[in-house]
Amino acid sequence: MMDVEVFFDYTCGFSNRARHWLDAVDGVTVGWRPFSLLQRNHSDGPPVFDQTDYADNVSLIALAVHEAVRAERGDLDGYRRRMFTAWHEEPGRLSTEDIIGFGRAAGLGSFDHQAAFAAVATEHAEGTKLGVFGTPTLVFPTTAVAFIKLDTVPSTDRVQPLWEQVHQLTEGAPELRQWQRVTAAGEPS
Hints:
Layout: E1 2-8, H1 13-24, E2 28-34, H2 37-40, H3 58-71, H4 76-89, H5 96-105, H6 113-129, E3 137-139, E4 145-147, H7 156-172
C-alpha cells in the first residue's frame, strides 16, 4: 500500500475529477490536504485566513470544515465526497449552513471557526513549502510532487494504468520538470 497526499481545493473542477480517479485506484491511500486557491490568487494584504472579509467565504469554509472534521476524527472521506458532489455535480449555490451541515453529518460536533481557518492556513503553508501552486497536486512518499489536470475522469479500465503512468513519470523521471499536452487551435481542450 502506498500513501500519497493530494493538495486540493473544493472549488477546483480538476480536484473533483482527481478525487473520482484516486478513489478508484487500488493499493493507494490518499490523504487530502487543503490548499486554498483563493489565498494563492490573493496578492493584497494579510492572508485571507486572517481577514474578517473572508470569514464567510464558502470556499474557505468548505476547507475549514474539512480540517475540523479531521480534528474530530469524523468521516473525512464522507465529508470530502459529499462536498465535492454538492459543489460540482448538483445545481445551486452552497451556503455556510449547508457546508457545516455536511460536516455535522460526517461527525463534526462543534465548529471553531478560528481554529479551523488556522489549520487550513497551516496546510496551505506546508503545500507552498513543497512548491504547490495549484490543485490538485500529488505528493509521493519520496516527496516527488506532481501537479495534474484531468480533462475527464478516467474510465474504469484506465484508472490503474493512468495511476501507474503518473507515478512512474513523477518518481521515475526527476529530470522532467514540466510536461504539458497542447491542443491544436480549434480543437476542444
